[in-house]
Amino acid sequence: MRAQFVLSEIGVGLRRNLTMTFAVIVSVALSLALFGGSLLMSDQVSTMKGYWYDKVNVSIFLCNKSDAESDPNCAKGAVTKEQKEEIEADLDKLSVVESVTREDQNEAYKHYKEQFGDSPLASSLTPDQMQESYRIKLTDPEKYQVIATAFDGRDGVQSVQDQKGILDNLFELLNGMNWAARAVMALMLVVALMLIVNTVRVSAFSRRRETGIMRLVGASGFYIQAPFIMEAAVAGLIGGAVACGFLVVARYFIIDHGLALSEKLNLINFIGWDAVLKYLPLILVTSFLMPALAAFFALRKYLKV
């Protein structure tokens, strides 16, 4: 009987404050959708780091005749056969080197034409103007400095470049965007909590006569407060369900279909459905507990027994 009464009061309260209930649902949905989105973004960045850092190379670019005329690092002339043999021998001695791929001038010219064939500059280039290079895969991508120290500034070496540095800039940008999303999420959570507290206040005020009678007949404080707490919790839970729907729909249309980024951006290893599904229970639990606790603390002041 008591449970039936509490459930009936929840329905009455939600209908009585329909506009504010809708505002609570929307604000909770948006804030928790951003919360889930930020968690998924963190997983995506971690997945990309693991995927790309395993593939990054350190490149040693060698001096050619053109560099000898224009680059101070190649002031001693183009790389010689003896210098290349010395570089290869030293690379074989380094334990941090997993594999080495040599790209000669003809291969470099071919790859350049494949990637930038439409560029006006491509028609004026010749193979002898391209740089030979060594592409080095490290056992640990963090050990780039070992290669830089050993070969940067050496005769015949134009430069030593670490692809990880380029990726770090990309991941810093993605992390910055993720923190911006979290800041907006935190703001939305504050707005949601304020709406929940105000909704509870209005509901308690509109039913002050009923709660007064319940006090007089000896109803416990929890029994009086339960309908108000459950109203907030139910509204929050609806918002959490909507947030889960947002995340599922976004994953479906952005990555799998619609924009279909998984097909258009084959070089990116996108997170799977398991990453999305593992956060849905957390969002639902948060959407239920957060409004319930906010309502509980608000009612301690407005429904003292």
From TrEMBL:
Domain FtsX extracellular: 56-160
Predominant place of localization: membrane
Keywords: Cell cycle, Cell division, Cell membrane, Membrane, Transmembrane, Transmembrane helix
Gene Ontology cellular-component terms listed: plasma membrane
Coiled-coil region(s): none
Matches recorded under Pfam families: FtsX, FtsX_ECD
Residues annotated as transmembrane: 21-41, 179-200, 221-254, 279-299
Organism: Streptomyces davaonensis (strain DSM 101723 / JCM 4913 / KCC S-0913 / 768)
Protein name listed in UniProt: Cell division protein FtsX
Protein family according to the UniProt entry: Belongs to the ABC-4 integral membrane protein family. FtsX subfamily.
Keyword flag Phosphoprotein: no
Subunit structure: Forms a membrane-associated complex with FtsE.
GO biological process: cell division
Record flagged with keyword Transcription regulation: no
